[in-house]
Write a structure and sequence with these properties.
single chain, Rossmann fold, alpha/beta
C-alpha cells in the first residue's frame, strides 16, 4: 500500500488494497497457495465495488504486487468487468508448462496441467501490462519469447522490461520500485483516462 498509494493519489485514483493471506501462520499460507481457486476472490471484490455508488465502475483496474501476479492473471480471464490489469500476464504458468514439457520430453503442452489457461494464451478483453526487471527470476529474453509466441493479435498486452542501466531491474523492481510504479501508473492513466478530480 505504501509503495503504490502516492502514485495513485498523484493521478486522482482511489485504491482498495487486499491482503488475502492476512496474519495467519505460515502453514495456513502454504495451504492457501495450494488452492486452485484463489483467483475467484477477485469476482467478490468486483461485486463489492459495483455495489458502491462512489466508484466509477467502468474504470476499475487491478494491480498485482509480488507473488499475487500469477493468480491475478488467471482472475483476469474470469472477470470481464476489469478495465485494465497489471500482472505477470500468465508468464509464470507458461514458464512452468514449458519447463515440465521439456523435463518430460512432451511435445504437447496442452497435457501439462495448470490451474487455468494462461492469460496470454487466451483472448482477454482488458489491456494488460507486464513489467519485469532483466535481473529478475525470469530472464528478459525468455519473457519476450513467451510473449511473442503466445500473444494473440487482438489482445492488448504490453511487456515492459526494466534494464539494469535504468534501474528497476531487480526482482519485483526492488532496486527502484518508484521508477516501476511511475511507469505502471502512467500506463494505467493512459488506459483509464485522467480522473475528473484529484483526491
Amino acid at each position: 500500500m505504501f509503495k503504490l498509494a502516492p502514485h495513485a493519489r498523484e493521478r486522482g485514483f482511489s485504491m482498495l488494497a487486499l491482503d488475502l493471506l492476512g496474519d495467519q501462520r505460515d502453514d495456513y499460507t502454504d495451504m492457501l497457495l495450494q488452492r486452485r481457486d484463489l483467483e475467484s476472490s477477485i469476482a467478490s471484490v468486483m461485486d463489492y465495488l459495483e455495489a458502491r455508488s462512489d466508484v466509477d465502475f467502468d474504470r476499475v483496474a487491478i494491480v498485482a504486487d509480488g507473488w499475487g501476479s500469477s493468480f491475478v492473471a488467471r482472475a483476469v480471464l474470469q472477470e470481464p468487468r476489469l478495465a485494465a490489469a497489471v500482472c505477470d500476464g500468465g508468464l509464470w504458468d507458461l514458464h512452468e508448462r514449458s519447463f515440465f514439457a521439456s523435463r518430460f520430453a512432451m511435445s504437447d503442452l496442452s497435457i501439462v496441467p495448470v490451474p487455468h489457461s494462461p492469460l496470454m494464451a487466451s483472448s482477454v478483453d482488458c489491456p494488460v501490462l507486464i513489467t519485469l526487471g532483466e535481473d529478475g527470476w525470469l530472464k528478459a529474453d525468455r519473457a519476450r519469447q513467451i510473449v511473442q509466441k503466445s500473444r494473440l493479435g487482438g489482445s492488448d498486452i504490453v511487456l515492459k522490461v526494466f534494464a539494469a542501466a535504468e534501474t528497476g531491474a531487480a526482482q519485483a523492481h526492488a532496486d527502484n520500485p518508484s521508477l516501476a510504479n511511475e511507469f505502471i501508473f502512467d500506463w494505467l492513466e493512459s488506459r483509464l483516462g485522467a480522473a475528473g478530480r484529484r483526491i
